[in-house]
Amino acid sequence: MSFRNIHEYGELFSKYLEARKAIFLDRLAWNVFEADGMEFDQYDTPQCRWVILHEYGEVLGGVRLMPTTARFKVPPDGRFLQALLDYIMVSEDLLAADPRWTIWHPFEDPDCYADEALRRALLLASDHFPVALDIGL
Fold it and tell me: Quick check: 47 and 66 in contact, CB under 8 A?
């Protein structure tokens, strides 16, 4: 979702911002800005893209992508994604599915470190490492 096509999704974006408030402000008590029951900040700009996981309009999770110099190869077609993964929101329903989190950090994940090509690529790409969430649906 982007600023250009946000209107095509009805209330989904505002529900996503409400979910962010519920998690970051209400549950985690972070010191974040809130207005009209929604959380947003200076990084929610026209340069961003949002991926919102929903079921019939109910927000289950979401992520905000921001431009960066980090490049990540997207299998299987070998394209590259240039984005900074800012955060991942996951609903309690998805958490109940016992997802497996992986932060592709070469010094904290032995598999990443063992693969020399992967380790080198991760270290050269950025100081932010990719996050994967495997959910059996």
Answer: yes
Asked whether residue 95 is assigned to any structural domain, the reply reads yes
Backbone angles phi, psi at 118, to 5 degrees: -65, -45
> Quick one: pLDDT band at residue 2, thresholds 50, 70, 90?
very high
C-alpha to C-alpha distance for 71 and 82, rounded to whole angstroms: 5
- DSSP letter assigned to residue 6: G
| 81 within 8 A of 131, measured Cβ to Cβ | no
Integer Cα distance of 136 and 28 in angstroms: 26
Q: pTM for the full model? A: 0.56
Q: Residue 38: give the domain boundaries.
A: 6-134
Mean pLDDT to the nearest integer, 106-114: 81
With respect to residue 1, please indicate whether it lies within any of the assigned structural domains.
no
